[in-house]
Request: fold
Amino acid sequence: MRVFFVFAITAGLLIYSTGLTAPLHLDDPNVLRIAETVGWGTRTLGYASFWLNRQILLFIGSVLPWREAFYYRLGNVFIHALAATALFWLVREITQRWLTAAVAGALFLVHPIQTQAVTYISQRFESQAAMFMFLSAAAFARFRRTNTKLWIPAVVVFAIGAALTKETAVVLPLWLLFIEFEFFEGIHLRKLVLYMAVLGLLLVVPALRAFQGSGQITLGWIAWHQYLLTQGPILTKYFELATWPRRQFLFYDFQPVGSITGTVVLEWLLVIGVAAFGLFLLRRQRLIGFGIISFFILLLPVMLLPLPDLIVEHRLYGAFAGVAIAAAGCVQVINRKWVLAAVAILVVALGVKTARRNSEWQDQLTFLEMHHAAFPRDPQILTRLASYYFMSGYVNKSLELNLEARRYEDRFNTYYSQQGHVLTAINLSSAYLAKGDFQNAEIEARRAIAAKPKEGYAWRALGYVQMQERKFPEAVESFKKYSELLPNGEAWEALELAATRAGDAATAKLAAEKLNAESEKASAVAASPGIPERYKSFAIFGLTLGVLGALAWAVYTVWAAIAGLANHKGTRTQGSSQVM
Reply:
């Protein structure tokens, strides 16, 4: 397993190096901001890993030249390598074949469908949860194979770790039962089901807490039967992405199925056919069948819970383990040298494709323009692309795209409709304000407030328009709402300026006090522990020694494995000669 881990780290760094220095995308800044606070909710371990990542960044970032995003993505790559190694361990435990396990782990590691869960920093929740699930399953398989009860705590700890990273880990007990029935005796069925039920209750608690406050809104945006009907086309698309993805996107313009058509029926027949084929193979080619059914089991939470984003690639991260296992099972059945050569070529080809996919994240405008070209009527893509153009100084282009998004606002699904209208209006207000069109800027800001009165950024947009129109008392009221809804340094600074110009000394004084408090807090964060200047040379020396030590360990691990394999072959040859 150590040899595979060395391979996973090396290959992972190589194929993901093309995207390590890409800027933060979409939700990344917000997730990292939450990780710096104490309000981590039910995804405690997920946010904790980001917090730990930041402490490392603060410590060594002062002696290394890379930007902030690099360190977070580097952490994602290590988690991905650990997840692939955990899958290798699981397959080796259930098959006792290291070559089969290596094929499964390598395919999982290099496939381009995994890029979104690795390169998109905020999707670490997906890869880290999958890593813990694979570790729990591998520990369970080791326990059942060796009957060593010391592995039971590891099963439970890893399972809880998965649940505290992402709520979809609730499916783990079902997967463990499936592993038991397929690869072990299945004795003491009632006792095992009882244990798994208890484990399931432990894992379901974070999921219930996560949806307690927002479940009705999040899960009620669409009729459940319509969402389930849409899973046929979605799974068909997932089949395509899990084999050889030709075109990958962060967003897909995928609308819910409104009626049963011939295409929908054919897609469902394909899904049912694949699942039936997997069940059929369970009694003939067990590993292949296990992989196919595992794909569906690991996707069950997102198939059954009507989540607002109908299709996103990162949801395939854990489920792709089933595809990798099934492919490894095919290699095991054929058992020919030419198949291993073909797998090696495939791994290299997939690695190259993954590296190319990662390079697409380097430029935000180019990245979303690619999406715009593929889905020209998607208002979510248009709105986000317009925001990037505005931040890059292309005001006219931003205005054009926002007006285009306005034409397609009816394509937002029910869940995103309100927020989509608000963002489009705020973007238009900012663009009109930048062009000096104060009348339209105010109309759009008020439209955003009408759509969502408790949206702080809508009041912010209105406040800035009123400042330009020299309506200072009105601006004071707008910035008051902004600071109440989203208290931050910018809000207090804007409120202080507006109150000063309006002659409201009391409000200006209060805003100044709040601004000073925010500044002190920011200064405290900036003064977080780092490496003092006089010790930086020692730190660089220590990091160099650490890297060299890791390289030496990797070389020794690989060399020892090769030597052990050669000795094993020599012993077998000698034994054969004695028999002759």
